[in-house]
Amino acid sequence: MSFDAETFRHESAQRWSAAATGWAANRATFQAAMEPVSAWMLEALGPQPGHRVLELAAGPGDTGLMAAQRIRPDGTLICTDVAEEMLDAARARAHELGLDNVEFKAMDAEWIDLPAADVDGVLCRFGYMLLADPAAALGETRRVLRPGGRVALAAWTGPQDNPWIAVPGEELRRVTGEPAPAPDTPGPLRFGDPAVLDDLLGDAGFLDVRIEQLDLTFAFDDLDTWWDVQLDLGTSLRAGVSALTPTQRDDLRDAIDARLADHVAPDGSVRIPARTHVAVAEA
What we know:
Helix content is about 45%, strand content about 20%. The chain contains 10 helices and 7 strands. It has a 7-stranded mixed β-sheet.
């Protein structure tokens, strides 16, 4: 079956809108694991007081809001996401932090509604890989950056490094009989090969591309807690699991638990490894 980009965009926006409540509820848990990613991206971007910074696919907005604190008092963060409900979560977090230098805009990263050369920096943590056309999004990113401005981004490495997401997806396909997705279809593990990311950035006109990898850990009290968070955050996983029969759901969990057993301590606590690319490039 051929990939229908327009259908995907419509359905993706609906899924992210529906997932916003779960992302807001688990924001602190996810950010605790992702703190090194946000720190790397901000260090690479180098936001300064007075800068104008754009965050794409912001979700609850943690990385962008950290930048907003650095660019005060005269700088502005433009926090964007395709789902207005995600922006509501980011607004709540900005209010909690007492930030008044943030603009919130519902926006698709493939069509950035800003003038050319309008911003000093762009942040996108785990966003480009999920888009129908990441090349278009990076081209738009390059367009809105001022000369010498930077983009800082993150995208997961391959399935071998990320059992937290690879194992549930593989086992769900086993239960349903669905084929594995084609390598270039939108998904969290799409940029496992850093050469793909390097080529996309180069083709968009970026210079001085630097790509590194960070090792991370997801920590939970037990596998049940981990699974509940996965269902809250994983839009495709939740949709797939909701379509299963009770027997199929039990089969799925048993298989996943068996494959993740090496990451469970004697007291039942869970530490699952993850790995991500982080990249920075200059306009």
